[in-house]
Amino acid sequence: MDNSLAQKQPAPAAPADLEKLRAKVIFACTIGGALEWFDFGLYGLFALYIGKTFFPAGNSTVSLIIVFSTYALGFVVRPLGALLIGRYADRQGRKKALSLSMLMMAVGMLIMVVTPSYASIGIASPLIIMAARIIQGLSTGGEIGGALSFLVETAPAEKRGYYASFQQLSQTGSFILAGGTVWALTALLGEHLITSGAWRIPFAFGLLIAPLGYYVRRQLDETPLFEQQLAGGTTPHSPLSEAFTHNLPELLCGIGIVALWTACSKITSSFMPAYAVKELHMSIDSPYLGLLAVGIALLGAPWVGKLADRVGRKILMCGSAALMILTVYPSFWILDHFRTPWVLIAQQFFLGVLMVIYSGPASAMLAELFPTRTRSTAVGASYNISVTVFGGFAPLFATLLVEWTGDPKSVALYFILAGVLSLVSVWLAPDKTGRVID
Predict the structure, then answer these.
(1) CATH 1.20.1250.20 holds for 21-428
(2) Is the keyword Chaperone assigned to this protein (predicted)?
(3) Where do the domains of the chain lie?
(4) Which residues are CB-neighbours of 333 under 8 A, at least 6 positions away?
């Protein structure tokens, strides 16, 4: 019997093999996540043109609200994707789950590229786009749980903040790639060609790269912690039930932790381009330069992750949230009174710096809340519920806030609400910096 058990135990990995696995995991999670978020973010960046193509309306504000409502649809289904793909990851492995999410995102990209306009096929056109958003939402919903589980379960205890920060870096890559691509495209082709259908080009670019992300993920080995669980026969039958039964306080805390992270991310990436053109009357390419500035600021995620491994997660996250609450309204006041591209870029860079100081450690703190048995499901559920509520509806709520109040600065109120919730949640969460996790 002892021999049988010994045969089931995986052989310990050699240090060189373990380092190679860790490097592969970082690369696979970063490039795969960047491609997923690149496609997801393009929808928000091209909201004005997608509205004209698939959701025409007599009033530009109504058209934009419909587009952002469809954008929100992709977020509404994300918790379902987190639960379904998270369960798959906790029972069958992180590798299979991440490969599946990449395939689903590629399907969503393909639909965005080939779907005819409303003028060509009528009501079928927006219905097909809504289906694409659902597929993309399910895919992206399953991405975060698998990616963060992979990163923290392969990292040494003293470097989990650094490893987990690469999940934020993957979003940074999508900010820079999407912002740079869209800015170059609008600058080269102009608004007429973009409106006529050239906005589809970046989606096609993402579709061409997707096979690389799938291939890289298929080459990964499972994490040591998941292999130990599998060998010990302790894989949970129902990760979802177990997470909500045994980890409910942690789930609620995780939802609060993500609130500021996602509100800042979605407002800067998906709302600001339309806001700058429609409300601030800036040129079409200015907002995309602002998005590039956010991306550049977020490149600091690994350094913030390293710092968090030294000083702890809480001090950085609480400080950033407090600064966001105090300074976000003045930053929008300055932007409203000095409507120039350089002020927009400076404001977006400032928000990006605060966001990376918060979100760099947040990735590790979120994953450390839960055990290996339910980590993918629980991380995915808490993250995506928060993203749905505070991120998916952020562009829509921000648009309605400006419309109802007539004050462009009212966007800042959304940041403040999310900031207060996150500050309280971080304060209540346990700080497991440097501690061994199960």
Answers:
(1) yes
(2) no
(3) 21-428
(4) 409
pLDDT range class, residue 147, cuts 50, 70, 90 = confident
- Taking each helix axis from N to C end, the angle separating 341-368 and 375-386, rounded to the nearest 10 degrees, works out to 150
- In single-letter form, the type of residue at position 302 comes to P
Q: What is the mean pLDDT of residues 170-177?
A: 73
Q: How many CB atoms lie within 10 A of CB 434?
A: 14
Sorted by sequence, the CB contacts under 8 Å of residue 82 that are 6+ apart come out as 141, 142, 144, 145, 377, 380, 381, 383, 384, 385
pLDDT at position 316, please? Answer: 95
What is the mean predicted confidence (pLDDT) over 17-38? 75
Residue in 243, 235, 373, 354 with CA at minimum distance from that of residue 301: 354
**How confident is residue 285, by pLDDT bands cut at 50, 70 and 90?**
low
Q: State whether residue 279 is helix, strand or coil.
A: coil
Q: Pick from 40-49, 101-110, 169-178, 216-225 the range whose average pLDDT is largest.
A: 101-110
Residue-wise burial string across 133-147, b where 16 or more C-beta atoms lie within 10 A, e elsewhere = bbbbbbbbbbbbbbb
Q: Rounded to whole angstroms, how far apart are CA atoms 125 and 344?
A: 35
CA gap 365, 379 in Å, rounded: 10
Contact yes or no for 153/224 (Cβ under 8 A): yes
